[in-house]
Amino acid sequence: MQHYDVAIIGGGPAGLTAAMTLSRSLRRVAVLESPADPRNAGSHGVHGILGLDGVSPAEYRSRAWSDLARYGMAELHETEAVDLVPDPRGGGFEVVTEDGGPFWARRVLLATGMTDIIPELEGFRECWGASIIHCPFCSGWENRERAWGVVTADPEFARKAPRAFAAWSDDVIVFTDGEAPAGDLGVETVTGRIRGLRHDGGDLRAVELDDGAVVERGTLLWQLDQRPVPLVSRLAKDRGLALREDCYVKTDGSCRTSVPGLYSAGDTITETQGAIESAASGSTAAFQIIEDETA
What we know:
Blueprint: E1 2-9, H1 13-24, E2 29-32, H2 57-69, E3 74-77, E4 81-86, E5 93-97, E6 103-110, E7 114-116, H3 124-127, E8 132-133, H4 136-139, E9 148-151, H5 155-164, E10 172-175, E11 189-190, E12 194-200, E13 203-209, E14 214-216, E15 219-222, E16 226-228, H6 230-238, E17 262-264, H7 275-294
Protein name: Pyridine nucleotide-disulfide oxidoreductase domain-containing protein
Catalytic activity: [thioredoxin]-dithiol + NADP(+) = [thioredoxin]-disulfide + NADPH + H(+)
Pfam family, one: Pyr_redox_2
């Protein structure tokens, strides 16, 4: 069994930034990343990180591993972690993987991200990450000066949408996707259920409703429901990992979870899910791991 100072589950901005900080602190690190496409695979680019703005997610990972290779402390394992078994001898974890090859690590960082619940709508997957976006700060620039639709059943969010997104579009309407609005939202509102999306190669053209109506739009802001990845759900069920009511991993503000020696960073702990926020969270987790080791 291979031994590491830290096992990082997930190879996105949070996990890779933590791997860099730990590598430069001479910690031997295993980064476990599922060979399946990452959650942001459909994104046209990573934004907000100076010097890397606009690079594709694949290029971001390639550059990150090129940087990590200089230190020789981090190893990539393209496999999925399915369980963490606390070492009964007094510290550390056995990291169980889907291919059966276990690892042992003194500390583990969960940087798995979340699982988006994708609507089964014609055209959604083709547009997701390009003209259907989850975050205006991530993709608003690329969708500026287009007709926007905001898909939400949250009346407060709906009311502020035209002002909140005015920098990117002066034509913003709200789709409640079949939900009855709570009173007058003060914004143009479409209440019919969405049944499909018209697009040209992933470039949204219009929204089709159940009643046959077609509403022309160029961009949808759609913040999808999310659920934890299977590993996190299993740890919550079997290992005492505490989750918040909204299913994100509960931490103490320094990326420590309820399980001693287990940390969490990035999209697993917050709905604020930009690349730079995740990277900062990964750095915080790495510093806390090092501090806890020397306490």
